[in-house]
Amino acid sequence: MVPDGETCLLLGVDGGGTHTRAVVADTTGRLLGQGGSGTANQATSGAATAVGAIMNAVQTACARAGCRAVDIAAACFGLAGLDRPGDEDIYAVSGRALDLRRAPLLVNDAVIAWAGAAGGRPGVALIAGTGSVAYGRDAGGREHRAGGWGGPFGDEGSAFWIGTEAVRRVLRGLDARDAPAGFAARIAAAAGFSEPADLCRLGRLDPGRGIPLEVALGALAPAVVECAEEGDVDAQAIVGRAGRELADLAGAVVTALSLAGARPAVYGLGSVLYRPGSPPTAVARATSRHLQAEWGLCLQPPVHSALVGALILAYEMLAGRSPMPDLVAAWSNAQ
Protein backbone atom coordinates (compact mmCIF):
# COMPACT_ATOMS: atom_id res chain seq x y z
CA MET A 1 0.00 0.00 0.00
CA VAL A 2 0.98 3.63 -0.50
CA PRO A 3 1.24 5.16 3.01
CA ASP A 4 -0.85 8.31 3.46
CA GLY A 5 1.19 11.40 2.77
CA GLU A 6 4.27 9.46 1.67
CA THR A 7 5.78 9.76 -1.79
CA CYS A 8 7.02 6.43 -3.17
CA LEU A 9 9.33 5.70 -6.08
CA LEU A 10 8.25 3.47 -8.97
CA LEU A 11 10.32 1.86 -11.71
CA GLY A 12 9.06 0.92 -15.15
CA VAL A 13 11.02 -0.98 -17.79
CA ASP A 14 10.06 -1.49 -21.43
CA GLY A 15 12.45 -4.13 -22.74
CA GLY A 16 11.88 -4.55 -26.46
CA GLY A 17 13.50 -6.44 -29.28
CA THR A 18 15.70 -3.50 -30.27
CA HIS A 19 15.74 -1.01 -27.40
CA THR A 20 15.28 -1.07 -23.63
CA ARG A 21 13.97 1.95 -21.74
CA ALA A 22 13.66 2.47 -18.00
CA VAL A 23 12.00 5.27 -16.04
CA VAL A 24 11.89 6.23 -12.37
CA ALA A 25 8.79 8.16 -11.34
CA ASP A 26 7.04 8.91 -8.09
CA THR A 27 3.49 8.67 -6.79
CA THR A 28 2.93 12.41 -7.15
CA GLY A 29 3.33 12.23 -10.94
CA ARG A 30 6.92 13.36 -11.31
CA LEU A 31 9.17 11.62 -13.82
CA LEU A 32 12.59 11.71 -12.20
CA GLY A 33 15.01 9.88 -14.49
CA GLN A 34 15.21 7.79 -17.64
CA GLY A 35 17.75 5.38 -19.08
CA GLY A 36 18.15 3.39 -22.27
CA SER A 37 20.15 0.51 -23.71
CA GLY A 38 19.94 -2.23 -26.33
CA THR A 39 17.76 -5.30 -26.79
CA ALA A 40 16.33 -7.11 -23.76
CA ASN A 41 14.99 -10.06 -25.74
CA GLN A 42 16.85 -13.07 -24.37
CA ALA A 43 15.39 -15.26 -27.12
CA THR A 44 17.35 -13.41 -29.81
CA SER A 45 20.32 -11.90 -27.98
CA GLY A 46 20.98 -14.38 -25.18
CA ALA A 47 20.35 -14.12 -21.44
CA ALA A 48 23.53 -12.24 -20.54
CA THR A 49 22.96 -9.51 -23.12
CA ALA A 50 19.28 -9.12 -22.19
CA VAL A 51 19.93 -8.93 -18.44
CA GLY A 52 22.82 -6.53 -19.04
CA ALA A 53 20.59 -4.23 -21.09
CA ILE A 54 17.98 -4.11 -18.32
CA MET A 55 20.59 -3.38 -15.66
CA ASN A 56 22.24 -0.65 -17.73
CA ALA A 57 18.93 1.09 -18.42
CA VAL A 58 17.79 0.87 -14.80
CA GLN A 59 21.11 2.02 -13.36
CA THR A 60 21.15 5.02 -15.69
CA ALA A 61 17.56 5.93 -14.79
CA CYS A 62 18.31 5.67 -11.07
CA ALA A 63 21.48 7.75 -11.39
CA ARG A 64 19.57 10.49 -13.21
CA ALA A 65 16.80 10.32 -10.62
CA GLY A 66 19.33 10.61 -7.81
CA CYS A 67 18.20 7.41 -6.13
CA ARG A 68 19.36 3.85 -5.56
CA ALA A 69 17.57 0.76 -6.81
CA VAL A 70 16.89 -0.26 -3.20
CA ASP A 71 14.85 2.96 -2.81
CA ILE A 72 12.31 1.75 -5.42
CA ALA A 73 9.01 0.75 -3.78
CA ALA A 74 7.65 -1.23 -6.75
CA ALA A 75 8.80 -2.08 -10.26
CA CYS A 76 7.34 -3.61 -13.39
CA PHE A 77 9.42 -4.99 -16.26
CA GLY A 78 7.69 -5.54 -19.60
CA LEU A 79 9.94 -7.82 -21.65
CA ALA A 80 9.82 -9.01 -25.25
CA GLY A 81 11.58 -12.28 -24.41
CA LEU A 82 9.25 -13.31 -21.59
CA ASP A 83 7.07 -15.93 -23.23
CA ARG A 84 7.36 -19.27 -21.42
CA PRO A 85 7.39 -20.14 -17.69
CA GLY A 86 11.15 -20.73 -17.64
CA ASP A 87 11.85 -17.29 -19.11
CA GLU A 88 10.88 -15.61 -15.85
CA ASP A 89 13.85 -17.23 -14.08
CA ILE A 90 16.21 -15.64 -16.62
CA TYR A 91 14.88 -12.15 -16.02
CA ALA A 92 14.51 -12.51 -12.24
CA VAL A 93 18.31 -12.37 -12.10
CA SER A 94 18.19 -8.69 -13.04
CA GLY A 95 15.93 -7.81 -10.11
CA ARG A 96 18.22 -9.57 -7.65
CA ALA A 97 21.40 -8.12 -9.14
CA LEU A 98 19.97 -4.60 -8.99
CA ASP A 99 19.20 -5.08 -5.29
CA LEU A 100 15.62 -3.92 -5.66
CA ARG A 101 13.71 -3.73 -2.38
CA ARG A 102 10.94 -5.89 -3.83
CA ALA A 103 11.01 -8.38 -6.70
CA PRO A 104 9.74 -6.70 -9.87
CA LEU A 105 6.55 -7.69 -11.60
CA LEU A 106 7.70 -9.48 -14.75
CA VAL A 107 5.31 -9.51 -17.72
CA ASN A 108 5.51 -9.72 -21.50
CA ASP A 109 5.97 -6.34 -23.13
CA ALA A 110 2.55 -6.71 -24.74
CA VAL A 111 0.97 -6.41 -21.28
CA ILE A 112 2.56 -3.03 -20.48
CA ALA A 113 1.71 -1.90 -24.01
CA TRP A 114 -1.94 -2.71 -23.34
CA ALA A 115 -1.89 -1.10 -19.88
CA GLY A 116 -0.56 2.15 -21.31
CA ALA A 117 -2.49 2.14 -24.56
CA ALA A 118 -5.87 1.44 -22.98
CA GLY A 119 -5.20 3.13 -19.67
CA GLY A 120 -6.05 -0.16 -17.97
CA ARG A 121 -9.51 -0.34 -19.58
CA PRO A 122 -10.87 -3.18 -21.76
CA GLY A 123 -9.43 -3.16 -25.26
CA VAL A 124 -6.77 -4.58 -27.54
CA ALA A 125 -3.18 -3.47 -28.00
CA LEU A 126 -1.60 -4.27 -31.36
CA ILE A 127 2.17 -3.95 -31.25
CA ALA A 128 4.33 -3.91 -34.37
CA GLY A 129 7.97 -3.12 -33.75
CA THR A 130 10.85 -5.51 -34.36
CA GLY A 131 8.27 -8.26 -33.74
CA SER A 132 4.47 -8.26 -33.60
CA VAL A 133 1.86 -9.33 -31.07
CA ALA A 134 -1.68 -8.47 -30.02
CA TYR A 135 -2.92 -8.56 -26.43
CA GLY A 136 -6.24 -7.65 -24.88
CA ARG A 137 -8.44 -7.89 -21.80
CA ASP A 138 -12.19 -7.74 -21.39
CA ALA A 139 -14.19 -6.06 -18.62
CA GLY A 140 -14.01 -9.22 -16.52
CA GLY A 141 -10.23 -9.37 -16.64
CA ARG A 142 -9.99 -12.25 -19.12
CA GLU A 143 -6.93 -11.91 -21.32
CA HIS A 144 -5.75 -13.30 -24.63
CA ARG A 145 -2.60 -12.93 -26.68
CA ALA A 146 -2.03 -13.65 -30.37
CA GLY A 147 1.31 -13.69 -32.16
CA GLY A 148 4.70 -12.91 -30.69
CA TRP A 149 6.08 -16.32 -31.62
CA GLY A 150 9.35 -14.95 -32.95
CA GLY A 151 10.86 -14.36 -36.36
CA PRO A 152 11.16 -17.86 -37.80
CA PHE A 153 7.56 -18.82 -36.95
CA GLY A 154 5.56 -15.62 -36.72
CA ASP A 155 5.90 -11.87 -36.12
CA GLU A 156 3.82 -11.26 -39.24
CA GLY A 157 3.52 -7.59 -40.16
CA SER A 158 6.47 -6.62 -37.98
CA ALA A 159 9.61 -4.74 -39.02
CA PHE A 160 11.43 -8.08 -39.19
CA TRP A 161 8.71 -9.56 -41.40
CA ILE A 162 8.61 -6.52 -43.70
CA GLY A 163 12.41 -6.54 -44.08
CA THR A 164 12.41 -10.27 -44.76
CA GLU A 165 9.70 -9.99 -47.40
CA ALA A 166 11.59 -7.17 -49.10
CA VAL A 167 14.82 -9.18 -49.27
CA ARG A 168 12.93 -12.19 -50.63
CA ARG A 169 11.35 -10.01 -53.32
CA VAL A 170 14.72 -8.57 -54.36
CA LEU A 171 16.38 -11.98 -54.54
CA ARG A 172 13.50 -13.49 -56.54
CA GLY A 173 13.93 -10.64 -59.02
CA LEU A 174 17.63 -11.37 -59.33
CA ASP A 175 16.75 -15.01 -60.08
CA ALA A 176 14.32 -13.89 -62.81
CA ARG A 177 11.58 -15.80 -61.00
CA ASP A 178 9.85 -12.42 -60.75
CA ALA A 179 10.39 -9.13 -62.52
CA PRO A 180 13.31 -7.10 -61.13
CA ALA A 181 12.33 -5.32 -57.93
CA GLY A 182 12.27 -1.58 -58.42
CA PHE A 183 13.36 -0.96 -54.85
CA ALA A 184 16.33 -3.37 -54.96
CA ALA A 185 19.02 -0.68 -54.76
CA ARG A 186 17.22 1.17 -51.95
CA ILE A 187 16.90 -1.97 -49.82
CA ALA A 188 20.53 -2.92 -50.42
CA ALA A 189 21.66 0.57 -49.44
CA ALA A 190 19.56 0.43 -46.27
CA ALA A 191 21.42 -2.75 -45.34
CA GLY A 192 24.79 -1.15 -46.06
CA PHE A 193 25.45 -3.02 -49.31
CA SER A 194 26.27 -1.61 -52.73
CA GLU A 195 24.91 -4.64 -54.61
CA PRO A 196 21.42 -6.13 -54.09
CA ALA A 197 22.83 -9.66 -54.35
CA ASP A 198 24.74 -9.01 -51.13
CA LEU A 199 21.46 -8.97 -49.21
CA CYS A 200 21.77 -12.74 -48.87
CA ARG A 201 24.64 -12.05 -46.46
CA LEU A 202 22.15 -10.83 -43.87
CA GLY A 203 21.32 -14.47 -43.22
CA ARG A 204 24.96 -15.21 -42.52
CA LEU A 205 25.75 -12.50 -39.98
CA ASP A 206 28.72 -13.21 -37.76
CA PRO A 207 27.26 -13.65 -34.26
CA GLY A 208 30.28 -11.75 -32.96
CA ARG A 209 28.82 -8.56 -34.43
CA GLY A 210 26.15 -8.72 -31.76
CA ILE A 211 23.32 -7.95 -34.16
CA PRO A 212 20.36 -10.34 -33.94
CA LEU A 213 19.02 -11.25 -37.37
CA GLU A 214 15.59 -9.92 -36.40
CA VAL A 215 17.09 -6.50 -35.69
CA ALA A 216 19.21 -6.45 -38.88
CA LEU A 217 16.23 -7.28 -41.09
CA GLY A 218 13.88 -5.08 -39.11
CA ALA A 219 16.13 -2.11 -39.82
CA LEU A 220 15.11 -2.38 -43.50
CA ALA A 221 11.42 -1.78 -42.78
CA PRO A 222 11.56 2.05 -42.83
CA ALA A 223 13.05 1.96 -46.34
CA VAL A 224 10.29 -0.38 -47.51
CA VAL A 225 7.59 1.88 -46.05
CA GLU A 226 9.21 4.95 -47.63
CA CYS A 227 9.24 3.20 -51.01
CA ALA A 228 5.56 2.33 -50.57
CA GLU A 229 4.75 5.97 -49.79
CA GLU A 230 6.56 6.96 -52.99
CA GLY A 231 4.46 4.58 -55.09
CA ASP A 232 6.68 1.51 -55.52
CA VAL A 233 4.26 -1.34 -56.27
CA ASP A 234 6.35 -4.08 -54.70
CA ALA A 235 6.72 -2.11 -51.46
CA GLN A 236 3.00 -1.32 -51.51
CA ALA A 237 2.18 -5.02 -51.86
CA ILE A 238 4.34 -5.86 -48.83
CA VAL A 239 2.80 -3.05 -46.79
CA GLY A 240 -0.70 -4.19 -47.74
CA ARG A 241 0.02 -7.77 -46.65
CA ALA A 242 1.56 -6.49 -43.42
CA GLY A 243 -1.63 -4.57 -42.68
CA ARG A 244 -3.76 -7.65 -43.24
CA GLU A 245 -1.55 -9.80 -41.02
CA LEU A 246 -1.65 -7.25 -38.21
CA ALA A 247 -5.40 -6.84 -38.50
CA ASP A 248 -5.75 -10.62 -38.23
CA LEU A 249 -3.73 -10.61 -35.00
CA ALA A 250 -6.03 -8.05 -33.42
CA GLY A 251 -9.08 -9.86 -34.78
CA ALA A 252 -7.94 -13.11 -33.19
CA VAL A 253 -7.90 -11.42 -29.77
CA VAL A 254 -11.32 -9.86 -30.36
CA THR A 255 -12.74 -13.28 -31.30
CA ALA A 256 -11.12 -15.16 -28.41
CA LEU A 257 -12.53 -12.67 -25.87
CA SER A 258 -15.95 -12.47 -27.61
CA LEU A 259 -15.57 -8.71 -27.94
CA ALA A 260 -16.86 -8.26 -31.49
CA GLY A 261 -20.28 -7.03 -30.36
CA ALA A 262 -18.72 -4.57 -27.94
CA ARG A 263 -16.66 -2.91 -30.68
CA PRO A 264 -13.53 -2.63 -28.53
CA ALA A 265 -10.85 -0.04 -29.07
CA VAL A 266 -7.78 -1.35 -30.90
CA TYR A 267 -4.65 0.62 -30.08
CA GLY A 268 -1.63 0.51 -32.36
CA LEU A 269 1.88 0.73 -30.94
CA GLY A 270 5.40 0.33 -32.26
CA SER A 271 7.52 2.01 -34.89
CA VAL A 272 5.91 0.10 -37.76
CA LEU A 273 2.56 1.77 -37.02
CA TYR A 274 3.32 5.09 -35.37
CA ARG A 275 6.42 7.26 -35.03
CA PRO A 276 6.56 10.16 -32.56
CA GLY A 277 5.50 13.41 -34.14
CA SER A 278 4.52 11.79 -37.44
CA PRO A 279 1.19 10.75 -38.97
CA PRO A 280 0.23 7.05 -39.07
CA THR A 281 2.52 5.04 -41.34
CA ALA A 282 1.40 3.34 -44.52
CA VAL A 283 1.28 0.08 -42.54
CA ALA A 284 -1.01 1.68 -39.94
CA ARG A 285 -3.35 2.88 -42.67
CA ALA A 286 -3.41 -0.56 -44.31
CA THR A 287 -4.08 -2.20 -40.94
CA SER A 288 -6.90 0.21 -40.22
CA ARG A 289 -8.53 -0.49 -43.61
CA HIS A 290 -8.49 -4.24 -42.98
CA LEU A 291 -9.77 -3.85 -39.41
CA GLN A 292 -12.65 -1.71 -40.65
CA ALA A 293 -13.52 -3.98 -43.57
CA GLU A 294 -13.35 -7.28 -41.70
CA TRP A 295 -14.19 -6.38 -38.09
CA GLY A 296 -15.83 -2.96 -38.18
CA LEU A 297 -13.05 -1.68 -35.92
CA CYS A 298 -10.66 1.26 -36.14
CA LEU A 299 -6.98 1.45 -35.27
CA GLN A 300 -6.13 4.36 -33.01
CA PRO A 301 -3.01 5.71 -31.31
CA PRO A 302 -2.36 4.65 -27.71
CA VAL A 303 -3.65 6.77 -24.84
CA HIS A 304 -0.29 6.43 -23.07
CA SER A 305 3.04 4.77 -23.83
CA ALA A 306 4.09 1.26 -22.85
CA LEU A 307 6.54 2.77 -20.35
CA VAL A 308 3.66 4.55 -18.62
CA GLY A 309 1.84 1.19 -18.73
CA ALA A 310 4.71 -0.31 -16.74
CA LEU A 311 4.33 2.46 -14.14
CA ILE A 312 0.57 1.78 -13.95
CA LEU A 313 1.19 -1.90 -13.21
CA ALA A 314 3.95 -1.10 -10.71
CA TYR A 315 1.55 1.25 -8.90
CA GLU A 316 -1.18 -1.42 -8.86
CA MET A 317 1.27 -3.90 -7.32
CA LEU A 318 2.18 -1.38 -4.63
CA ALA A 319 -1.21 0.11 -3.86
CA GLY A 320 -3.59 -2.72 -4.69
CA ARG A 321 -5.62 -0.39 -6.88
CA SER A 322 -5.30 1.48 -10.15
CA PRO A 323 -3.72 4.95 -10.12
CA MET A 324 -6.00 7.93 -10.58
CA PRO A 325 -6.25 9.19 -14.17
CA ASP A 326 -4.64 12.53 -13.30
CA LEU A 327 -1.57 10.72 -11.91
CA VAL A 328 -1.23 8.65 -15.08
CA ALA A 329 -1.66 11.78 -17.20
CA ALA A 330 1.10 13.50 -15.23
CA TRP A 331 3.52 10.65 -15.94
CA SER A 332 2.56 10.66 -19.60
CA ASN A 333 2.89 14.44 -20.00
CA ALA A 334 6.32 14.40 -18.34
CA GLN A 335 7.80 12.03 -20.96
What can you tell me about this protein's structure?
The chain folds into 2 domains: 9-117 and 304-334, ATPase, nucleotide binding domain (Nucleotidyltransferase, domain 5), CATH 3.30.420.40; 122-302, ATPase, nucleotide binding domain (Nucleotidyltransferase, domain 5, 2-Layer Sandwich). It has a 5-stranded mixed sheet with strand order 3-2-1-4-5, sandwiched between helices. Strands 8-7-6-9-10 form a 5-stranded mixed sheet, with helices on both faces. The chain is of the alpha/beta class and 335 residues long. Helix 4 packs across helix 11 (306-319) and helix 9 (233-256) crosses helix 10. Strand 6 (123-128) and strand 7 (132-137) form a beta hairpin. The mean pLDDT is 86. It starts with 8 loop residues before the first strand and ends with a helix. Helices cover 43% and strands 17% of the residues.
